[in-house]
Amino acid sequence: MKTRYEIAEEVVSNYKENKLLLKIGFDLIDISNGIDWRYKHTSNVRTYSVYLHTLDFLKSIVMVYEETKEEDLVILANKILTSWYEYNEIRKDIDEFVWNEHAVSNRLHNILYYFEKLGELTADNQKYFDTIIEEHCDFLIDENNYRPNNHGIMMDKALIESVSYIRNEKIKKLYLSKALYRIKLAIFRDFSRRGVHLENSPEYHRMVQKILHITNQTLIKKNIKIGSEEHRLINLAKYFNRIMLKPNSSYPLIGDTGYIYDKYTKKTFEDFVDYDSGTVIFQQEHKDNLEESFYLFFKSGYKRKTHKHKDDLSFILTMDGSDIITDSGKYNYDKKDNLRDYFTSQNAHSTIIISNKDYSYGNPISDQFDLEIKNVKISDDLKVATGINNLYPNCKLKRTVIVTSDHLVIILDEVLAEEKVDIIQNFILSEQLSVSKIDNKSYSMVDNKNTFVIQNLNKNFDDLESSVSESKISYRFNEYDENLKISFTSSMINSNIVTCIYNENKGIKNVQYNNKNNILTYEINSKIKEFNLFD
Where is the Heparinase II/III-like C-terminal domain (predicted)? Predict the structure, then answer.
């Protein structure tokens, strides 16, 4: 993953070739005839237009100037800001993308950064500067423009940053008190009691946590205390980054999350349960090689619909240095894009699906008893987590994930339906795995390190069908890679489905399930182990 300065260098390099890069992964925009502030992308108008008017590229140019002292970049930055200001003076009551809460928050930050680094305030430009600050702050403080989500936090961060540049003490106090009130409200609104951001995405958790940390540091410098409980939640959110990082120090591709490698956050390997956000993480550190540690992320439930995918009862699995079961990633935000529909659907997640049926999210308060993590038990021998999804019409689903001390993973799916339904167990695989069929109930999954086996253990499922098909995984915005998924399909009314995943190289074999007494047995290193799935 590129550093912020490396991204800035890429922005400047492209700009010199008359190409505007708004964000890594975005299409380049031709600016041979200057920046068209009315630019409309062919398929993703809103996202591109908002990012155009954040002026993030202005900050990139200033950052590169700070390092290189290339005077042409000062001229370029001045030209860009003047061009945008003149356009806005004409169209500020017309263009919805100029005065959008995301665009305004980021743009104010970038303009303040520009003036701090380059802008010498004189009698000639002080009024110009004051007008920009006033217009932006008036927008940000207006409750009609406020958004009760991560954008609202961005708005208040920008307001707090602007206070140092406002000369009217009465207005300064007003902005600060309003921003502080809303920030404190947002911390309790947007985070669980265990510090997990409730917008269903590790990427957005990380982003909002960083915004709050920076904002809190700004307040501390102004001798303003945010509150002890608020401060505690901010610290919990920061610590959760360490917990949810995968063993390779990247964030899991859950919800609207792209690939993020975080070399600055020290990974910790403790198990974690948060019933509010519907999150369970089971992990075990490999002392000699951290990347070979065990990691399983299990999810069911929601408290906010923002950035939510149909990933309930899905899981991510990494062990022995290999990604095995993965998630789809973000791809983009375009609701009109059919590919976006796929990435957010059940079909792109490792979950249990009722064929030809769908479920919808209503209100998180009323849905919380039908879509949740129910029980978690952790001992030296077994780690067990159970989640439910009762939002499908006329059908209830329960999934229990069991991890043994030998890292045999058992998936127990329980189906209770009013009529016969076709059940699909979806397993989205890392693109690093090649797959070969052992028999109709089991597959071998191989990378350059390990050989894993996925196996259905139900002896009485004569109608079970299995298949390998193409799927998609997105690490970068608007880009995707091809990967594979394994699906087990069977028809049933009320039944239990038992599936296991294990590393064949670690000596596990002869995994069997007796559906009469619910005993699962397996052999490892010539020892027989057994346990009851329903204990």
Answer: 277-492
